[in-house]
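Design a sequence for this backbone.
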């Protein structure tokens, strides 16, 4: 920018420099003003901008602007000209200083932008959202009207460029995912090959000796007009190119739309080295963010595979419960979402982040994994006696029948010998009656054993009979043998269910096994509560649960929700060898009974029913 030299009329003949006349007191700005001392006061209070005064004479009015230089009345033309040159140089220095200040401020703002972008990129874990953020931020920071983002992928051992994303402020972009080989024939391919950024001032006028060309089919398809481009590699710290960022049409007016050739020529400018440096810095941050996001996705995918394998392991141990873990996880996540959507008063402040939802789902999926530490015979025990034990009891009753028959026959023959006579038809008939009565008695006792063996509630009469059978014996070569061994009678005396006290404790130990197993996994901080949530799913609000007999205030909301879901599914799942399923309506009534008994959370059970969580499709974790 050149600065004017302004002179008042009486000074016009005293300088050889090119100057324009100015009236005393006239508004001036960024100029060198040459005047006499007597006229300087005319500018007192006037608009003077950043002008500099050269005053000739000694008597300056009080309150007038301070002069840059003051010369004596008798100064020569050369002295005045040198003073003017010095003033012009001062204005130029001021101008350069201001430009430097603006450049420094701009650089500072750009650095802050890059820091802000870096933080935003680091925080975003969704790859699609991350790519959108990278492209939109890149366009914003260099005022690009449009842009595209390509990712490099391996296919059949070959690296390909996948057109992943497009943005355009002027026209809706035509977004069709395509792939192309990495060659130097295209701008993106050239940059992916060389690993260096490249700018094109006008794609219509490419140098004749370059290998790349501009594909104008996209412009023609959407009615766009590309001029300048900046294409930069997205490279990892090791130098591997994992993507390409292409920015199009740097605009002087952010609101302008490039819908004609004339508009493009009017508002589009080339990208400069300053924009290249900015995009290189942003692309480096983008590469780290993309790699981190991909790594996190791979780890999460790997962990999902591990969880699926763990659940499959559980279900293969007890096929009758197949799908239980997935259903409990779906019910629990759906209940959490319903709790956020329509919270009871006690839960009005409860919210679950995406990570907390994932944490809840994992805990529900793995809550029964500890069953791998329970003997399969106990895990799948359908009756009070194991099948091989029941087979021994049945065989013992058969032996008893034969032994009693032999004993009756022996007494029959001994009696005949003592009487010294041959048997009559009546003798044989009486013997047959005794044998039949004996067999009917044993069959009745065996039927009572079979009835007691069922996991239903044990009737008192059957319980007394089982007690009596412990004292019943039959003759054998080694002496009298019991019809029921003590351990068999103990198992048949279980009042409800199929497990005795020791087996019940072994089954309940699965929560401890689950907890200990889950503690061995190096959970990230955001999922650190998975073991504790899974650990508590058999706790009850009144302290009668297990393993720790926790009370209401000690049981987290996540655990309470999982407990409701676990009980509902256990009641309604298809018939198991040891338990028949109940209809959903009956299961919901049982949940309400559990609330009355102080076992379950009333608000969560009511929400489970009112929101029909049990009937919802599989819940989606954000």
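Sequence:
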């Amino acid at each position: 920018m050149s600065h004017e030299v302004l002179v008042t009329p009486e000074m016009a003949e005293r300088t050889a420099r090119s100057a324009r006349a100015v009236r005393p007191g006239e508004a001036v700005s960024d100029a060198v003003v040459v005047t006499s001392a007597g006229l300087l006061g005319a500018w007192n209070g006037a608009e003077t901008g950043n002008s500099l005064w050269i005053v000739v004479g000694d008597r300056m009015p009080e309150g007038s602007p301070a002069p840059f230089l003051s010369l004596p009345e008798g100064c020569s033309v050369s002295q005045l000209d040198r003073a003017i040159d010095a003033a012009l140089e001062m204005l130029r220095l001021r101008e350069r200083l201001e430009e430097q200040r603006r450049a420094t401020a701009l650089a500072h703002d750009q650095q802050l932008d890059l820091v802000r972008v870096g933080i935003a990129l680091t925080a975003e874990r969704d790859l699609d959202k991350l790519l959108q953020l990278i492209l939109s931020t890149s366009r914003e920071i260099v005022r690009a009207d449009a842009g595209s983002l390509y990712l490099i992928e391996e296919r059949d051992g070959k690296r390909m460029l996948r057109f992943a994303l497009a943005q355009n402020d002027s026209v809706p972009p035509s977004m069709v995912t395509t792939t192309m080989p990495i060659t130097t024939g295209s701008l993106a391919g050239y940059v992916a090959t060389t690993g260096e950024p490249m700018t094109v001032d006008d794609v219509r006028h490419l140098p004749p000796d370059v290998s790349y060309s501009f594909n104008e089919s996209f412009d023609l398809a959407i009615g766009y007009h590309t001029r300048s481009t900046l294409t930069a590699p997205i490279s990892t710290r090791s130098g591997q190119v994992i993507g390409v960022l292409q920015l199009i049409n740097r605009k002087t007016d952010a609101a302008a739309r490039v819908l004609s050739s004339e508009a493009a020529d009017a508002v589009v400018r080339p990208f400069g080295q300053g924009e290249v440096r900015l995009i290189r810095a942003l692309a480096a941050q983008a590469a780290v963010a993309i790699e981190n996001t991909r790594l996190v996705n791979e780890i999460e995918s790997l962990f999902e595979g591990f969880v699926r394998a763990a659940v499959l392991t559980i279900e293969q141990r007890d096929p009758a419960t197949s799908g239980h873990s997935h259903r409990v996880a779906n019910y629990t996540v759906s209940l959490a979402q319903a709790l956020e959507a329509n919270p009871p008063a006690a839960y009005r402040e409860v919210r679950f982040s995406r990570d907390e939802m994932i944490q809840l789902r994992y805990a529900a999926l793995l809550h029964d994994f500890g069953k791998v530490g329970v003997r399969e015979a106990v895990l799948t025990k359908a009756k009070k006696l194991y099948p091989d034990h029941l087979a021994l009891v049945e065989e013992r009753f058969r032996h008893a029948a034969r032994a009693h028959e032999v004993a009756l026959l022996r007494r029959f023959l001994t009696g005949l010998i003592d009487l010294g006579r041959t048997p009559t038809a009546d003798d044989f008939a009486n013997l047959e009656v005794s044998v039949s009565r004996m067999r009917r008695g044993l069959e009745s006792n065996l039927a009572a054993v079979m009835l007691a063996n069922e996991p239903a509630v044990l009737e008192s009469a059957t319980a007394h009979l089982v007690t009596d059978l412990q004292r019943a014996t039959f003759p054998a070569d080694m002496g009298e043998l019991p019809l029921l061994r003590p351990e068999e009678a103990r198992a048949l005396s279980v009042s409800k269910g199929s497990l005795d006290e020791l087996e019940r404790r072994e089954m309940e130990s699965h929560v401890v096994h689950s907890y200990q197993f889950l503690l061995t996994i190096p959970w990230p901080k955001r999922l650190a509560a998975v073991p504790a949530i899974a650990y508590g799913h058999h706790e009850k609000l009144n302290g009668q649960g297990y393993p720790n007999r926790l009370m209401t205030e000690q049981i987290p909301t996540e655990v309470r929700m999982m407990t409701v879901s676990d009980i509902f599914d256990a009641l309604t799942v298809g018939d198991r060898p040891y338990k028949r399923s109940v209809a959903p309506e009956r299961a919901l009534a049982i949940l309400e009974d559990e609330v009355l008994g102080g076992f379950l959370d009333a608000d969560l059970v009511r929400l489970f029913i009112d929101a029909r969580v049990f009937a919802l499709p599989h819940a989606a974790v954000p």
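Residues 13 and 180 are 74 Å apart (CA to CA).
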